[in-house]
Amino acid sequence: MKIRSTKDIGALGEDIAVRHLKKLKYKIIARNYLTKRGEVDIIAKDGDTIAFIEVKSRKSGTKVNPLYSVNIRKQKQICKAAQDYIVRKKIKDTMFRFDVLTVMHGGGEPEILLIRDAFEFRGLDG
Description:
Layout: H1 6-23, E1 27-35, E2 38-46, E3 49-59, H2 72-88, E4 95-105, E5 111-119
Parallel strand pairs: 3-4
Antiparallel strand pairs: 1-2, 2-3, 4-5
């Protein structure tokens, strides 16, 4: 895939993320889960835990670490979408967590960093 836009970088990053997660034995449940309250890039099972995963991709050499774009506002959006998913699927007695996976694209193999439990559930007021 020729990278032309930030949308291309994001789509490629999510494809790379899914392959990486599968190698780690995650079971992918959903991609780009969208509600009116927010979006989760990937929802997956890691053992008995449901992981809501935000994927951030950048070109190598970018001065700002992609982790910085998962700010409090973004975390709240992810939490709202996760809450909608949990309610809609009537999930009970299941552990869940929020992971962030970064992909740095450049020449050669991409650099992948998975941070499990990257942030906690944020209050949904405001």
